[in-house]
Amino acid sequence: MGAVPYDTYARQLGLLAAEASRGRWERIADDVHAALNGQAASKLRSLVPRQVRRDTGSFFTTGAVRESFEQLLSLNAVQPDTRTYWDPTCGAGDLLLAATTRLPLAATPARTLTDWNRRLRGHDLQEPYIAAARMRLVLALLERHRQAGSDAPLALDRVTGAFPLLQLGDGLQELQIRSTEARFRGHILLNPPYGMADADPTCRWSSGSTSQAATFTAAAAVALRGGGRLTAVLPDVLRSGSRYRAWRDELTGLLEVEQIKPHGVFDMHTDVDVFLLSAVRRHRGHSGEVSWWPEPQAVTGRTLEDLFDIRVGPVVDNRDPRTGPQAPYLTARDLPAEGEMGLPERVRNYPKQLIAPPFVVLRRTSRPGQGSKGGSRGAGVLVVGDVPVAVDNHLIVASPKSAGIDRCWELLRVLERPETAKWLDERIRCRHLTVTAIRSLPWDSEDEPS
Ligand SMILES: C[S@@+](CC[C@H](N)C(=O)[O-])C[C@H]1O[C@@H](n2cnc3c(N)ncnc32)[C@H](O)[C@@H]1O
């Protein structure tokens, strides 16, 4: 059924735009304000069932993320902008609305509309979103004129025919067409669907199930002509996950990345961490490295992997056979928030690798900004005992290469530092800490290791 119920809201916006075009502001000013801000997203939640939103990748950029997006756009356009903007997955037009704040006004709404009609393009698979986006853009234009004191009526047929370059269509296909035909010389705005889909067999940087956000972004980078810009809101896993390293390499080969801004959770209804990206398509060649996360800035210049062997606990409880010797079995459930513990009481037969204490474990699942049981994110627990332990795969294990228990205590102090929590939050905002991230954690201990 797609997003058909959203059509009710799109029609309401059409009526509102018609009122505004006649200059009847006293009755509608508040409604227009709501329509240009979070209302499109709240109507999406109330009209379109959650499962449909999920299946179609529908959530609209509003509130703090849209403000950050707007700030990024404003960094590179001090003068009124003369560019063309294209959102290939435009939804109800929030990113295009952010871009209109950069566009100049002509003497009258009618003339401005003629100009903006050429400069704003969008695609989406859901017709009601496109209809809503067009009417919201009309409202934004009329509201800007009202604020500038150059208010004048706009004929109704101009309202109903506004923004013809916002069209029903597959944005990915449109981007791919641009990679072989005339490349796009303007500014692509992107907050694509985040669901998974199989990568195309010709894809150079991924195979199998792949984030659609990664696929859209790579296609956008290819579709741009040299000097064209890309500003995007993307799931944080693309910035910090080892799964997307080849994607990052692909992008930095095509784009001069100007800014990468970790943002945190998308909004209170959409529990996904995102980051913002601002980049320019290179004219040719690849120049230099891009840091997608903060570089290690350890005073000592060392990272954790210089001093510890770091791995994921080997036991996959529901898959591994319960054969072999019986051993103490350490799971995330049995860990204190932080500090030291002896051997766990839980036991399990395990035929493969056991790990000898002392070692430090970290929970793999921990949200940015907080750890479990009130501990800080990345808080470690020292495990001591005289027999080897079977460690569950929800834990990351750090075994000291030398200096045994003393080195483990040093590690707990490093993990407790606020600088470490901040580094982890910026390095990896998605829910799973990774071995790669933990290995590259700066070793900034007051007790300089020997
Ligand atoms: C995360 S929403 C973002 C919408 C808008 N860019 C924003 O930031 O508010 C993604 C949008 O992509 C649309 N979409 C999903 N697959 C698409 C495709 N292949 N082509 C065009 N639009 C698509 C969905 O309908 C949805 O409106």
Describe the structure.
The chain has 450 residues and is an alpha/beta fold. The protein folds into 2 domains: 4-281, Rossmann fold (3-Layer(aba) Sandwich), CATH 3.40.50.12420; 304-439, DNA methylase specificity domains (Adenine-n6-DNA-methyltransferase TaqI, Chain A, domain 2), CATH 3.90.220.20. The protein is 37% helix and 19% strand. It has helices at residues 7-21, 25-36, 39-47, 50-56, 63-75, 94-100, 109-119, 127-148, 156-160, 171-180, 212-223, 236-240, 245-254, 404-416, 418-427, 435-439; strands at residues 85-87, 120-124, 166-168, 187-190, 196-198, 209-211, 229-235, 255-267, 270-281, 308-312, 326-330, 339-341, 347-349, 359-363, 380-383, 390-391, 395-400. Strands 3-2-1-4-7-9-8 form a 7-stranded mixed beta sheet, sandwiched between helices. Strands 10-17-14-15-12 form a 5-stranded mixed beta sheet. Strand 8 and strand 9 form a beta hairpin. Helix 1 packs parallel to helix 8 (127-148) and helix 5 (63-75) packs across helix 6. The longest helix has 22 residues, at 127-148. The radius of gyration is 26 Å and the shape is elongated. It starts with 6 loop residues before the first helix and ends in an 11-residue tail after the last helix. The site of S-adenosylmethionine has 23 residues, from helix 6, strand 2 and helix 10.
